[in-house]
Amino acid sequence: MSSTILGVVDKKMKAAAEGLKQELSTIRTGRASPALVEHLRVDYADVPTPLNQIAGISAPEARLLVIQPWDPGSLRSIEQAIQKSDLGLNPINDGRLIRLNIPPLSEERRQDLTKIVHKRLEERRVVVRNLRRDALEELKKAEKAKAFSQDESRRAQDQLQKLTDTYVAVAEKIAQEKEKELMSV
C-alpha cells in the first residue's frame, strides 16, 4: 500500500522537475533555440494553436530563428503572437517566412531573467511540497484504516521525505544550470 502511494508521488514529482526543465527552456539565453517560440499560442483560424503545429522552426545560425509556416496566410498571426509575447523579439516578415534575430542579452536583462528562473524554481518547490503533503495525508489515512502498521507508515514517511529532498535538489540543479547559461556571455 505505501509503496503504491510512494510510486505515484515519485512519478508526479519527476513530472514536476521535467516540467521545470521545459519551462526554463523557453527563457531566452542569447542563443537561438526553437524551444524559445515553439509553444507560443498563435491565433490560427480563430483557434489558439501552438506555433510548432502550424510552422517549421529552425535555428540556422547561433542568433537567428527562422519560422516557416505551412500556410502562408498565417504569417501575420504568427508575427502578432511574437510581438505580444514577453520575449522582447522583433519579427522580420519577408512574405514567405519570419526571421527572429536574437540580440545578445544586456546585464540588466540577464538579472531579470535570473529572477524569473528563481521564481519558477520556487513554484516547482511548492508543487513538490504539496505533493508530499497530499501523500502524507494518504499515508495517515491508510494507517488509521489499519492498512499497515505504524512502523511501516514511519518508514514510508521517511522515504517520502527523501523523495521530496531528491526532487527539490533536481529542480535546484536544473535552475542553477539555466542561471549559469544565462550569466555566461
Description:
- There is one protein chain.
- The protein has 2 domains: 102 residues, Topoisomerase I, Chain A, domain 4; 68 residues, Gyrase A, domain 2, CATH 3.30.1360.40.
- It is of the alpha+beta class.
- The N and C termini lie far apart (51 Å).
- The protein is elongated.
- The strands form 2 sheets. The chain has a 4-stranded antiparallel beta sheet, covered by helices on one side. Strands 1-2 form a two-stranded antiparallel ribbon.
- Helix 1 runs antiparallel to helix 3, helix 1 runs parallel beside helix 4 and helix 3 runs antiparallel to helix 4.
- A hairpin with a 2-residue loop joins strand 3 and strand 4.
- The protein is built from 4 helices and 6 strands.
- 57% of the residues lie in helices and 15% in strands.
Task: Write a short abstract of this structure.
This protein is of the alpha+beta class. It has helices at 2-25, 75-84, 107-144, 150-183, and strands at 41-44, 47-50, 55-61, 64-69, 91-93, 98-101. The strands form 2 sheets. The protein has a 4-stranded antiparallel sheet, with helices on one face. It has a two-stranded antiparallel sheet with strand order 1-2.
User: What would you call the shape?
Assistant: elongated
Number of domains: 2
Find the CATH topology of the largest domain: Topoisomerase I, Chain A, domain 4
Strand adjacency order, main sheet? 3-4-6-5
